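Morning run. Coffee first, then this:
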Amino acid sequence: MSAPVVGTDAAGVREAAAVVARGGVLLYPTETVYGLGGDAFAAGALDRVRALKGRDAGRPVLALTDDWARVAAWLAGLTDVHDRLMAAGAPLTILFEAGPGAPPGLVGPEGLVGVRRATDPFCRAVIATCQTPLVSTSANPAGAPPPVAFADVDARLLDAVDLAVDAGAPLAGVPSTVVRVVDGEAVVLREGAVDAATVRRIAAGRVG
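And here it is:
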């Protein structure tokens, strides 16, 4: 049986936040593609997301936050380059050295944690309502293309989540750019919505 489906209005935010608060799993729109997620601190939600995605435990998933202050205890080794990337307001997933407050399940084998500050209003509203970052990974079985329209979501995922959120219009469709700071330089690990040249300009403080 498919999960209940809500929209991105205030009622949808309340229902999604309630699912997150009880440790459930959402299928929801981000500023890039549809994602799977839940409370970043709920190990059970993370385990379900990994299973639905078909991702092994050695491959970390990222988290979405509405405000960098919410994840301050997660992040260590910050530099001016990190600060500029964090202030950019662009769809950048930044890999940070994990601080002591980072949820263990989100820390990768290299001791890094990936976080993106969401710009999507629905995501931001859910996070603010729940007062917790959201686990996020694209809502597709490993190896399949991520869905940009609700109609493209795999029916097996709709059967398995606790709530699905339909954004109506298709999403941007380009995944976030993944970046890590190494020796004071911004290194793009996956080019997506922000091209590598723009990342370098942001990191150098040449975008304003």
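The longest strand covers residues 92-98. Good start to the day.
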